[in-house]
Amino acid sequence: MAWLVAKNLTGDGKPVEQHIHSDNWHCGDEALKSHLRFRLLDGDGNIYFEGVASVGEEFQPLDDFGREYGCTQIDYLEEANWKEL
Questions:
Q1: Which regions of the chain does DSSP assign to beta strands (E)?
Q2: From the CB of residue 73, how many other CB atoms can be counted at a distance below 10 Å?
Q3: What does the alpha-carbon distance between residue 65 and residue 51 come to, in Å, rounded to a whole number?
Q4: How far, CA to CA in Å, does 63 sit from each of 12, 34, 40?
Q5: Domain residues for 23?
Q6: Which residue of 3, 37, 40, 83 has the lowest C-beta tally within 10 Å?
Q7: Are 2 and 21 in contact (CB under 8 A)?
Q8: Three-state secondary structure call for residue 69
Q9: Greatest C-alpha distance within the chain
């Protein structure tokens, strides 16, 4: 599974300046359109990050990156609705 964090919503107001992604992410901007959107949330339901993944219903973005920032939940966008794993 490959993933990319595209948006920082942690409240510090800083955009994601460098690409935060899995080691196997090798796609350009055009490839983002065909990937599945995910978001990482903390235990209070605050959204910290949004991104895209090559495969849905996997915890890898949360395990690889999100827990470092206190995220405890990952949701995937399915048919215009967010679904918690």
A1: 3-8, 20-21, 36-42, 47-53, 71-78, 81-84
A2: 19
A3: 11
A4: 22, 23, 10
A5: 3-84
A6: 83
A7: yes
A8: helix
A9: 33
Burial class (CB in 10 A: 0-12, 13-18, 19+), 13: exposed
> Which token pair is 7?
């948006």
Report which residue type is found at 66: G
According to DSSP, the β-strands at 47-53 and 3-8 are antiparallel
List pLDDT tens digits, range 12-64: 656 555 667 676 666 655 555 667 899 999 999 999 999 988 887 899 999 99
Which single residue is written with the structure tokens 């055009």?
30
> Which pTM does this prediction carry?
0.82
Residue with tokens 């209070």: 44
Secondary structure of residue 4 in the 3-state scheme: strand
Lookup: tokens for 69: 């920032």
